Structure prediction request, 174 residues.
Amino acid sequence: KVNPSQSESAATESKAQASVNPDYVIREGDTVHVSVFNEPELSISGRVGRDGTLQCPLIGLIRIGGLSQLSASRLIGTAYQKDFLVNPEVNLYVAQFSVQRVTVLGQVQKPGALELPSEKRLTILQVLGMAGGPTRIANLKKVLVKRLVNGRQETTKVDVNGMISGSDNELFYV
Prediction:
């Protein structure tokens, strides 16, 4: 007999899996579920650590941060195949996304911290929209984006006016 709450949960879970961008990159704080076909004792759910690793039965810590779900499942499958299983079928999906926040300061209507939807990438135009848009005195030709990359701060100057007018066809993702 199927418990209605279990079937609803499974349906919600499969919808979440289907709606995730296949290019989504696993990052610190994401909760992932790993299952190996016909090996239920190897199934786990766990949070990706600060160093991008996940603790798996038998194979120990494996670095999946920075990989797509497909690449991570292949990496785990290769690790199991090396010493333990013959042609393992590994399924991995992100069960819960970590929260990503950005801070928008300067000449915007609503400066402050914004929580971004983790499962998709946003452009700088979308983030400016979330901050209420620019004020009338904002200089959109010289928008500075600062971010930490490998522990170092990087600053990029972005011409948002060019993106809006179409003269700069390249989108800048936050």
Residues 4-19 form the longest helix (16 residues). Residues 1-18 have pLDDT under 50 and may be disordered.
